[in-house]
Amino acid sequence: VVIDQDWPWLKQIPNLEVVKVNHFLNDEKYQNAKDLRVFNLCSSLGYQTLGYYVSLLASARDFRPIPTVATLEDALDTTITESIGEEIFDLIQETFKKDIKKEIVFQIIFGQTEPQCYEKLGKALLRLFETPLLEVVFIKERNWKLKKIKILTLDDIVIDEVLISNAQKYFSHNRFAISKIKQYKFDLAILIDPKDPSAPSGKTALDKFAEAAKKVGFYVEFITKDDFFRIPQFDALFIRTTTNVDDYTYQFSRYAYSEGLAVIDDPWSILKCANKLYFHESMRSNKLPTPKTLIVSPLTSLEKITSTFEFPIILKRPDSAASRGVYKVKNEKELELKMKELFLSSELFIAQEYIPSEYDWRIGILEGKALYACKYFMARNHWQIYKWNTSKSNARVGKVETFLVEEAPKEVVEIALKAANAIGDGFYGVDLKYKDGKVCIIEVNDNPSIDRHWEDKKLGDNLYLEIMENIMSRIERARQNKNKRKNFNQNN
Predict the structure, then answer these.
(1) CA 232, CA 224: separation in Å to the nearest integer?
(2) What is the pLDDT of residues 141-193, one digit of tens each?
(3) CA–CA distance from 275 to each of 257, 302, 342, 426, 463 (Å)?
(4) Do β-strands 112-114 and 103-109 pair in parallel, antiparallel, or remain unpaired?
């Protein structure tokens, strides 16, 4: 924390390093430090003030200043203020719908919104405008609109026991203590949803990931969808809840990527794997084997489908996942009914030949390297791996047999690697059928399952360790490339 006045209470916060502005600007200790997070609590933050230069030079040293210079500048820009208001327009209207005032002013101090009834809106504002001390002004015209954003200083607020307590929570909760900066190389967020019925990792596996992450040098924190605004506080995001393009998981991934974090699953992998139409076209253009497939539109005749395939026929929603949104029709009547149902939610879907088998091969691939191989058997008395109950809240799954990669059929692994490479360099689970010596790709999944005694049965803790080492490597490579670009620009 950088200050230009004496604030004795700040020094009472455990493990927090408080630095006077001149020391921060001129001391070699801070000029040559690595991976610092710098909180700028100077009393003046205007253009070319000491506080302004604290944030500016912190960025130049590859630290993480809060607030950034961009944030300081944005606070003065009415166009930016209006655009921020537009981004959360619906939330603003919902928050103030019962207020009869014409103007509402509130503050967000060390992450706490006062009054608390505006907490949800306060968190959304912090997500867009990260700073320890913030004041916002809203006015009622035809609709409520964000009128003004002001970055406060400690001179602007009342210092009391409640504020000091909130500050202690703010710095400790967000892991900014100097001892942790020394102990851990980077900060990793693992996104989970405790209520996800088809989560890719259970609690035991998640604990294994956390242990492995700490071994390679990460501080680890499990986060949920309520922590969206905290994404910039981390160096990497590992998503361990079911991903979907039209929900918060994709938003987390996209936001994290835009903030420069190493991300698994990256937004492009989510987009590509989530849409079966994209997957089919990608495999086709790369001349990779898949089941016979037909893209069905409202213009596709029933006759076209029945002349292309023999019954039963597989129908897939474009966003199908984990056996949900995948249907088997046995005759023309079932086909006609299911087509009508599918067209209610999408203008296109996929029809595929049915390839019966006892199991699918699953090859787990990370950045072009095969890590593990499994046989996923069909659920008992069912044609899919998952057999969901009526409400889709729970599923029965088939048994799993795990193999070392070298124990799996060579041609299965080779085709799986080609399929994954056609999608990207992320973490994928490639599902394939291997029948009569022929390999057929069923799908490539982002966010593949890793569960204790299943996928990790052969490699044990080394599987978790290899994934965490890869995420660490991604951060280090990105920073090396950034430094190379910086040196190139300076020399040219």
Answers:
(1) 15
(2) 999 999 999 999 999 999 999 999 999 988 876 554 343 433 568 999 999 99
(3) 20, 23, 15, 16, 28
(4) antiparallel
Q: Could you tell me which CATH class the domain 357-463 is placed in?
A: alpha beta
pLDDT given for residue 177 in this prediction: 38
pLDDT, tens only, 29-80 = 888 888 788 999 999 888 778 888 888 888 778 788 899 887 888 788 777 7
Position 422, amino acid: A
Q: How far apart (Å, rounded) are the C-alpha atoms in residues 304 and 246?
A: 31
Q: Give residue for tokens 């990460």.
A: 218
pTM for the model stands at 0.66
Query: Which residues, at least 6 apart from 124, have a Cβ–Cβ distance to it below 8 Å?
Result: 88, 91, 229
Half-sphere exposure of 67 toward its Cβ, with a 13 Å CA cutoff? 28
How far apart (Å, rounded) are the C-alpha atoms in residues 292 and 238? 34
Q: Report the alpha-carbon distance of residue 44 to residue 64 in Å, rounded.
A: 19
- Three-state SS string over the chain comes to CEECCCCHHHHHCCCCCCEEHHHHHHCHHHHCCCCCEEEECCCCCCCCCHHHHHHHHHHHCCCEEECCHHHHHHCCCHHHHHHHHHHCHHHHHHHCCCCCCCEEEEEEECCEEECHHHHHHHHHHHHHCCCCEEEEEEEECCCEEEEEEEECCHHHCCCCHHHHHHHHHHHHHCCCCHHHHHHCCEEEEEECCCCCCCCCCCHHHHHHHHHHHHHHCEEEEEECHHHHHHHHHCCEEEECCCCCCCCHHHHHHHHHHHCCCEEECCHHHHHHHHCHHHHHHHHHHCCCCCCCEEEECCCCCHHHHHHHCCCCEEEEEEEEECCEEEEEECCHHHHHHHHHHHHCCCCCEEEEECCCCCEEEEEEEECCEEEEEEEEECCCCCCCCEEECCCCCCEEECCEEEECHHHCCHHHHHHHHHHHHHHCCCEEEEEEEEECCEEEEEEEEECCCCCCCCCCCCCCHHHHHHHHHHHHHHHHHHHHHHHHHHHHHHHC
Contact 367/472 with Cβ under 8 angstroms?
Answer: no
Q: What is the pLDDT of residues 310-368, one digit of tens each?
A: 999 999 887 776 557 889 999 999 999 999 999 988 888 889 999 999 999 999 999 99
CATH T-level assignment (fold) for domain 292-353: Dna Ligase; domain 1 (3.30.1490)
